[in-house]
Amino acid sequence: MAPYDQNHTLEACNLTCIRDDRSLFSELSFSLKAGQALLVEGRNGSGKTSLLRILCGIRQPDEGHIHWNGGDIYRLSTGYNAVTAWVGHKDGIKLELTAQENLVFARSLGTPSELGIAETLDAMELGGFDDVCAINLSAGQKRRLALARLLATRSPLWILDEPFTSLDTHGISLIENMINKHLEDGGMLAVTSHHAVTLDSSDITHINLSA
Ligand SMILES: Nc1ncnc2c1ncn2[C@@H]1O[C@H](COP(=O)(O)OP(=O)(O)OP(=O)(O)O)[C@@H](O)[C@H]1O
Fold first, then answer.
1. Looking at this predicted complex, what is its ipTM?
2. Considering the entire predicted model, what is its pTM?
3. What InterPro entries would the database entry show (predicted)?
4. 117 within some domain
């Protein structure tokens, strides 16, 4: 993939998240630049998914704001979802569509990458499954198809909630390599994972929501 713009920035300022009168986190601030990763850690229920959903713009923080390249993510003229790729707990794939059709759909929603659909499926070791309905893929193959969206579209900011769920050790290393390449190209990453994540970059910010 061609390198991303090295001037991209993400800044989170004084984020607060309250659920049912309970404060999950407050006054949380951090920033990311090209090639940097944010690793969100913490016990079950500490608020990791809630933080990632706020970073995606799916949920507004109760306090604080997030800026992309200096502009509030809710007011970007280009649309913040044009720069983010989100893979959540759920695969978010259409079970009645084939693997290929799922990627055509994903590309229609974002900025298509220079990698073709067949090449993307090959990269995710799903070559030969292009015309198979997603409902007939194994759990790990469904997860790889969900993560294939990251390659099928071109988004500098990847936001991944437990990306390794259902993957075997080979699948995990496939995704880690993909993430490392993304960071090498100047992409950014926010991730939470109960598995250890092996990243080549030393440019990692750790946030522990249980601390
Ligand atoms: N839609 C919601 N409405 C009310 N409370 C919610 C909602 N979503 C999450 N919560 C609560 O917020 C808290 C944090 O949930 P969250 O999913 O962010 O935690 P997490 O750190 O990602 O947990 P896990 O490691 O188990 O995935 C939990 O106590 C949960 O019950």
1. 0.96
2. 0.95
3. AAA+_ATPase, ABC_transporter-like_ATP-bd, ABC_transporter-like_CS, ABC_transptr_haem_export_CcmA, P-loop_NTPase
4. yes
